[in-house]
Amino acid sequence: MRLFIDTNIFVSILNRERNYGRSKEVLESIHEGEHEGATSVICAAEILSGFYSEGEEERGDRFLHDLRSIGNFALRDVDLRIAKEAASLRGRYGTKLPDAIIAATCKCHGYALVTRDQSLRKVEEIEVRRPEEV
Q1: Phi/psi at 37 (nearest 5 deg)?
Q2: How does pLDDT run across 56-93, given as a tens digit for each residue?
Q3: Which domains, and CATH codes, for the chain?
Q4: pTM for this structure?
Q5: Please, which contacts does 24-28 make with residues 24 or more away whose CB atoms are closer than 8 Å?
Q6: From CA 78, how far away is CA 81, in angstroms rounded?
């Protein structure tokens, strides 16, 4: 299965939030080759902004290093095709622009979105799963 990992999945692991174990298992299953995974540079920017706003640049760099070391995992850029699809999805569903870009990336590359943000389930063009559903 092709899985796109949303920002809140990484945040739950980084902060060791309740039920973070299943999120960690999903990333491990990608690394071990059970699934193909990806995230967006948008998700990376969202996470890095948290580190940088707290003056934790070193921790942000470590996160990027760890992200790049996950096997079977891609960091997707935003290209014009994704930007156009994001604009269409945002217009259709009224989502925030970062969420629309994430949904568009999933649609354009054929990923199921793994997220705890249930508001994205309204985007009919993509499959949305909680970590427990993977």
Answers
A1: -125, 165
A2: 999 999 999 999 999 999 999 999 999 999 999 999 99
A3: 2-133 (3.40.50.1010)
A4: 0.95
A5: 25/131, 26/114, 26/131, 26/134, 27/70
A6: 8
Contacts with 26 (C-beta within 8 Å, 6 or more apart), sequence order:
3, 5, 9, 35, 114, 131, 134
Whole-angstrom Cα distance, residue 47 to residue 18?
Answer: 18
DSSP state of 116: S
The DSSP result for 25-50, as a single string, is HHHHHHHTTSSEEEEEHHHHHHHHHH
Q: Look-up: residue for tokens 């622009």?
A: 97
- Which residue in 126, 64, 73 sits closest to 101, CA to CA? 126
